[in-house]
Amino acid sequence: MRLQYKLLFLLIGLISTLKALPQSDISMATNWYNRANYNPATITRDDYLYLFSSIRKQWVGVEGSPTTVNIQASQYFREQKAAVGFSLTGDKIGVVQTLNPMASYAYRISYNRTSWLSMGLSAGIFYRSVNSALYEAETISDPSISYDTETMLRPDANIGFEYQTKHFIYTLSSTHLLSIGKSDNLLLNSNHRYCGVIYKSTGSPLYNYNVGLQVVNRQNIFIAEANACIRIKHQTGLVSGPREIIEFGATLRTSRQLTLLAGINITPDIKVGYAYNQSFITGYYPNSTHEIMFEYRIPRKSAFSGNYHNRGFWYN
Hints:
This protein has one helix at about 1-15, and strands at about 50-55, 65-75, 80-95, 95-110, 115-130, 150-165, 170-175, 190-200, 205-220, 220-235, 245-255, 255-265, 270-280, 290-300. It is mainly β. It has one domain: monomeric porin ompg (Porin, Beta Barrel). The chain is globular and about 75 Å long.
């Protein structure tokens, strides 16, 4: 336990030294609740088929602002200690369109009921097109402007590791591995590195809560973000135990962005959420960002064992 707290304080110290600069990976506010967005190791969720989707509209009021759609599905097989999954992310920013379908595999090493190490790998393709015909140039006849449509289709891969204990989750991942060492350009899918830690508490009969810190790196650019979330529980009796019904959270980034999140567990297996993001970057102050998410768990028979009430906790 002392080692875990030392790692947490070390990460806090690292974050305090970072410079606030923007990042270019596809941005999603719900990554704290669905870490598989950037880390394939997190799909080892036990006892159910996991389905997730979200749609994000960024900088409302800005012409050509980003619109992102994310769809994911994964299943953990306890006998094989492994999980498989699929994800599809689509992003449109002005004249640029991106599609990123990926298949994932993760293996889990369990040390006991509350402690395990997961390792995951994703592979797929990354497609990006730039429709230059949509440019609105002041001088249409400018010979330096190309109005052709450029496309790029390349193989893509992500890797990730996650270590969970009773109260801590440590994550380490890298996305777009085949772009390591390459210079950024309009068509490139830039390599990103993610490192984070989450502290979780489920001891109270009235609520659960978690706090987390994450560092993101691309080239010489660093972003740090902190998240806190509280989930209110409903007492359902001694048989099934308490389950979470509603949650509230906030994320603060060194890129001068604040996100407020809320979620409702309609049933123990269905959850909807909403995220409001406000950027304080010059030029985008009045332009907010909105994200809606839907999460559905289809439980296996083993989920209806004596540990049924654990399905009401949305941590792993």
